[in-house]
# Entry
Amino acid sequence: MAEELIVTSNLTKEERYKELYPQIFALNQGEDDLIASLSNMMSALKYGFGWLWVGVYFVKNSELVLGPFQGPIACTRIQLGRGVSGTAWYKKEAIIVEDVDQFPDHIICNAASKSEIVIPVFNKNGEVAMILDVDSDKLNSFNEIDQKYLTQIIQLIVPLL
Ligand code: SME
# Structure
């Protein structure tokens, strides 16, 4: 296993994902524990991009429950349809929020959060099993490039669900 994440400076967003993806892939090779794999993945994303918060919530009964994350402390439970995460779960689709103040019902876990992307993760039965949530302290940090690569990265976890 690699001991240090390689993060080259002055890369474009896409170049950074291309640098990180094989490292995250390698980190998860041979590890079949969901929490262990997710924990390193969240760290690699947090320190690869310098975002405010990167983490997952698991679908448990009728709520989202906080899972492995990197960043400030966060809300532990979110109801179906509530906030950006609960809405992505309910709609079963990714949501990009350029300015969280403009998103109706955004849940403020940390006042420094300005923009956000949430990606639902489906189990083998096509049900949402968890969501990936990334927060930035800058407005308009996420676009379709993030959606594409974050979806690919979190997909590495699906066999462990
Ligand atoms: N802002 C999110 C809540 C989760 S945190 O940002 C970690 C939301 O509205 O769902």
Summary: Residues 13-28 form the longest helix (16 residues). The two ends are 22 Å apart (CA to CA).
